[in-house]
Amino acid sequence: MSEQRNYGFTTTILHNDRRKAIEQGSLHKPIHTSVAFGYGDARQLASVFQGKEPGFRYGRQGNPTVAALEDKITKMEDGVASLCFGTGMAAIGALFQALLREGDHIVSSSFLFGNTNSLWQTAAGQGVAVDMVDATDVTAVAAALRPETRLVFVETVANPRTQVADLARIGQLCRERGILYVVDNTMTTPWLFRPKAVGAGLVVNSLTKSIGGHGIALGGALTDTGLFDWSAFPNIADNFRKQPSQAQGMAQLRAKALRDFGAALGPEAAHHIAVGAETLALRMERTCANALALATMLEADERVAAVHYPGLASHPQHGITRELFKAGGSLLSFELNDGIDCFDYLNRLKLAIPASNLGDTRTLVIPVAHTIFFEMGAERRASMGIAESLIRVSVGIEDTDDLLEDFRAALSS
Known about the structure:
Elements: H1 9-15, H2 42-49, H3 64-77, E1 81-85, H4 88-99, E2 105-109, H5 114-125, E3 129-133, H6 138-144, E4 149-155, H7 167-177, E5 180-184, H8 189-192, E6 202-206, E7 220-224, H9 248-260, H10 267-277, H11 280-299, E8 304-308, H12 318-324, E9 331-336, H13 342-348, E10 353-354, E11 364-367, H14 377-383, E12 391-394, H15 400-412
Parallel strand pairs: 2-3, 2-4, 4-5, 5-6, 10-11
Antiparallel strand pairs: 1-7, 6-7, 8-9, 9-12, 11-12
Keywords: Pyridoxal phosphate, Transferase
Cofactor: pyridoxal 5'-phosphate
Protein name: Cystathionine gamma-synthase family protein
């Protein structure tokens, strides 16, 4: 595959493994299950451990199959380096584990995936202050910043109420203040949006979701876009300062979150995710089209109280969505009118499956307040705009007419 031509997104990902030699001419990087890597020269082993030359030390810190996936993710996000983790939450946890210290401060969107919200509560209990703000408004982020603020964290499209952060303006604010800007791109994926375009220094992706796409492997990733000046970040340990400034963040993350904390991705999961990633653009085109059609239908139905989908003109952040994203995404949520029991409604669906994952090829539904956001309590749910009847829909690749009829028939029963 020529290095001289700039290929398109899918072509690049589809052929990326072959940019480097693959054993026996395999079209995919094989699954390397070994956790130890031998060297014929002991000096070379020492050189690899000291970071003087590339190579693999131990399976917890890297593996040829995982490295091939990391390279794919880096290409997807137009970054300089990526690290893969056992789950998406492990990738977010790596920020806390490897980059933050007692007395540091985080500014985070208040519109968050429930487990990320729980993680920030854990961080707050261990000496890292966290302010949760309305990230749809950059002035709320600016007002929360302190001298000890180390990072600003937002999701592109919030799960489950689909609020869209003021991404570009927050990025500009972070650049002006020299603050690490971390953007969780899971709900948009690198196909719909690249956070590098708005100044993100680190990008989070849950590989379990749309990038893997088939609901058969857990994984997560952090990608360094190359935009953040790590030499100005106060929490880099002295031994990692020996690296070039651009590499310092990833070096510390690999050591602290993979070597020390052990949040590694296994090679079998990496292989499944890498194969799934090849069809990301194709799947996202279909799921986004299905989501828009379903959201439009539901919004027009008088039995539906509200529909939350960034691709609808009625969405508060529709303008940002049109400006930054290729489409509105595959996630939507809606509220039923009073008197319609959400459990009875879900039980009448024939195709959509009650399940907690996102980004699957199949359409998945879940009653949010009673499941994934149950433990945070009614008051916190209300502050996030999560109604008791809210149903989250991760839209799949089913035939559009079949999908619409399934949701329509369940309303009519």
